[in-house]
Write a structure and sequence with these properties.
- By secondary structure, the chain is of the alpha/beta class.
- It folds into two domains: 69 residues, no CATH class; 240 residues, TIM Barrel (Alpha-Beta Barrel), CATH 3.20.20.70.
- The protein is built from 14 helices and ten strands.
- It has a ten-stranded mixed beta sheet with strand order 1-2-3-4-5-6-7-8-9-10.
- Helix 14 links the parallel strand 8 and strand 9.
- Helix 13 crosses helix 14.
- The termini are far apart.
- The structure holds pyridoxal-5'-phosphate (PLP) and iron/sulfur cluster (SF4).
- The site of pyridoxal-5'-phosphate has 8 residues, from strand 2 and strand 3.
């Protein structure tokens, strides 16, 4: 070891990034880890190059070994059914491309502006409506931040900025701290919201550095996580949520209603109850966005209504998520009244 190694402090790789590096990206490895047959039907690496398999080890650890029907496994396994072409399923299911402004800004709803902070995710969820999103052109990379901040500063009607993606927590803390400092400087902004699944699938992400920039910001914070099944919530997630709660940050959840994964009253009920044990309130239950390759996950709307009606009869009102669908051109998510 030369002198340089001593004099130049190594840039420390945060634990969460090391965890991400160890994620499953090869179907064969995941099958072996889960003790599933190597010939389980699935799309090959080459067939899913634009949206490959990606599963953090800790999330795979919450799956039941030897069970190809496991509700977490089914969210991430590239089923041969993804290749089916469905007439009503598009590549831009929710009309985002029409609304996208330079720098990754999507301003569809009054008062809140959504920022595609990055295209990267810790996990690739097969039902995701952004699986065909042109992130390379769209996302708010650092060179776009000043124009983005200028646009937000120019529109007095915007009170809330939503950092989304992809997953905004895929970005390093120094970058996020810089972006949020910029947002802090815009006087009419009141709230900062994060939409993240990474906090759930890689709970190591909720580290001291993240809590520092969050608590340093003058903005009111709210975090919306994304959990579809109660098995996703283990003690490691509990510790991460505890840290966010101790920082005084309200926690909400959005789920997607997914066939064969959470489309029973008992799973939805225990999901709500378990979320509450973790200090998280159910917010939205989304009807699947009709994105090409995800049709096999769709739950019929009549079934969805019956499910929510059922759990409404069993849970306190604050544990019943709002059943919604995103309809292009509407001024908010569309509530589906059951
Ligand atoms: C869903 C969404 C929001 C947030 O909507 P809320 O109802 O406030 O949760 C904001 N902007 C865009 C573009 C969205 O898709
Ligand atoms: S984490 Fe969210 S954005 Fe990323 S693939 Fe999953 S659902 Fe899509």
């Amino acid at each position: 070891m030369g002198m340089n190694a001593v004099l130049q402090p190594q840039r420390r790789i945060p634990e969460w990034q090391a965890v991400l590096t160890g994620s499953f990206t090869r179907p064969a490895q995941l099958l072996a880890y889960l003790q599933l047959p190597p010939d389980l039907p699935g799309l090959k690496l080459a067939e899913v190059r634009d949206f490959p398999l990606r599963v953090p080890l800790g999330f795979a650890g919450r799956m039941e070994k030897g069970n190809p029907e496991d509700p977490l496994f089914r969210q991430v396994w590239p089923s041969p059914r993804e290749a089916e072409k469905s007439p009503h399923f598009a590549t831009d299911a929710v009309g985002d491309l029409d609304k996208l402004r330079p720098g990754g800004l999507i301003h569809k709803y009054h008062g809140r502006a959504l920022v595609i902070a990055t295209g990267a995710c810790a996990i690739n969820c097969r039902y995701c409506f952004r699986r065909h999103f042109p992130y390379a052109e769209a996302k708010a990379s650092r060179k776009h931040w000043q124009p983005l901040l200028d646009e937000l500063a120019a529109d007095q009607s915007i009170e809330e900025v939503i950092l989304s993606g992809g997953d905004p927590l895929s970005l390093a803390d120094d970058k996020l701290a810089e972006l949020v400092m910029g947002l802090d400087g815009i006087p009419h902004l009141k709230r900062l919201r994060l939409h993240t699944r990474q906090a759930i699938v890689v709970p190591e992400r909720i580290n001291d550095e993240l809590l520092d920039w969050l608590t340093d910001s003058r903005l009111q914070k709210v975090i919306v996580v994304h959990v579809n099944h109660p098995n996703e919530l283990d003690t490691s997630v509990g510790l991460a949520m505890e840290r966010l709660k101790r920082a005084g940050i309200p926690l909400l959840n959005q789920s997607v209603l997914l066939k064969g994964i959470n489309d029973t009253p008992s799973v939805l009920k225990s999901l709500s109850e378990r979320l509450f044990e973790f200090g998280i309130l159910p917010y939205y239950l989304h009807q699947l966005d009709r994105v090409q390759g995800a049709a096999h996950y769709e739950v019929d709307e009549a079934v969805a209504k019956a499910l929510v009606r059922d759990i409404s009869g069993q849970l306190p009102g604050y544990l019943v998520p709002r059943l919604v669908r995103e309809v292009a051109g509407q001024p908010s998510k569309t509530w589906i009244h059951w």
